[in-house]
Every structure is written in structure tokens, then in C-alpha cells.
Amino acid sequence: MAQIGKNLAIDKLKVRQSFSLACNTYDAAAGLQRIIADRMINAFNDCDGKINHVLDLGCGTGYLTKALQNSLTFDHLFAVDIALPMLVFCREKNLQRSNFSPICADAANLPFRSGSIDLITANLVLQWLSDLHGALMEIKRLLKPCGQLLFSTFGPQTLQELKQAWAQVDQFSHVNEFYHLEAIRSFLLSCGFKNIVITSQNHVMQYDSVFALMRELKDLGAHNVTSGRNKQFTSPGKLNTMIAAYEAANQSSAGIKATYEVILVSAKN
Fold first, then answer.
1. 20 to 30 A from 143, CA-CA: which of 49, 156, 195, 242?
2. How far apart are CA 251 and CA 237, in angstroms?
3. Predicted confidence (pLDDT) per residue in 17-63, tens digit
4. pTM here?
5. Helix (H, G, I), strand (E, B) or coil at 146
């Protein structure tokens, strides 16, 4: 079974801190996240049967949560996030909803009864977990028989340009590691999921500069959270070397490009 390397394991405390600090800037920077959330909304047409309880895992500031409210008919929606400040923003977007409950919790240990949820969604969230297999087992525990899981995550080609540029500077991990599509399929099968459908699509985004890309990642809270990251101050010289390497390989009249491999997954319990 695929595993994240020791030096690339996710620092959960760093994840919570990063997204908590980004709560005020996230929405303005989350263009790709909204695009993927809209793709997920379109997939909800495939949900069959009555939906009683919905869980939006890693809800962030609540874009997908609100879209779920507007697109589906259900009894109750639970929005969960590990970062309390993000959850506050999500709650404010859904204040008029009596069938909405925001909950601050860890995706690895969710406070719900087994077999109590009909639909679980997670938009670009599960890549921040060290133990993806364990998280999928927890999700399966919550789903009712024939309950549906729908999530998006990043694949290994994500930010490949940034990773290649930093590789010319030092040997530290500067970009989070992401699972390949087939590794995710293997996890799902080993957990006992059925009717698995997985697609992968590269989104190539344009930025005015490398600094603009780095600013967006910071505003999203999408920092490098691997244990193998350089925990010391990066010198201006190293930063300039990385930028020069990035621009040399990816510069165009439109600026610089950055690739995001987005994997979309649907599965049944």
C-alpha cells in the first residue's frame, strides 16, 4: 500500500495553524477551489435515493457548503473543519439555515455515529492528511449502506514547476507530496468502497510572477506542511535562485504557469 515518505509526512498542527491564519484571505484567492467545487456540484445529479444527512468535510469558509444547501434537498448538513476561524466564516454564510451544524473536528476522528451519513463531500481537503487510508476508513464508518463519498484532491503533478525549481536550490521538501490516482484507488478498494469512479485533470494556471503564485498559496493557507521542510529562514539568495530557475523554464508573455493536477473521486459504501 502506498505511503508518504517519513520526511514528507504531514504536520497536522502546521495544517491547522496555516488554515486558521488564512481565514481572512482564503476566499479572494480560492479561484481553483471554486471551480472544482462547481464540478462536484454537477456530479450530485448522480446521487440516488433520499438524502437525510450530509457531511461537508474540511468545509473551509463554506463555498461548497452553501452550494450543497442550494442544490440538494436533505434533512441536515454538518460542516466540519479542523481550523476554527475557517468554521466561523462558514457559519456566517449559513446563519439563516436551521438544518446546518458547524463542527470543529479532526477528519481522522469524527464525532458521528457509525452508519449515520448519506453523503460525504470533501473539496481539496484529504491531501492535507498523513494517513489517507485511515481517513477513508473513518469516512466509510460514517456512511450508511450505499452512502456516497465524493471528493477532490491534488495529484502528484501539482506544482511540479515549483518543485523542479526548488530542486535546483537544495534537497529540502518545498512542495507537499500528493498521491497518484492509482494509489487512491487502491486505498478505496482496501477500505471496501464500491462503484469507484476516478478522473484526473490538469489545470494550468497563469500568474504574473513567481511571487504572485507564492502569495496566492500563502493566502490559501497552502503552505508546505511536510516534516521534511526547511524550518529555518530561506536566504534571499536561495529564493532568487529558485525564482530564476522557475522563470527560465516556465516564463511566457502571459507570465509564469503553475500546474494543478486535480483528482475527482466518487465511491459508494
1. 156
2. 20
3. 665 555 556 556 567 888 889 988 887 755 556 789 999 999 888 88
4. 0.85
5. strand
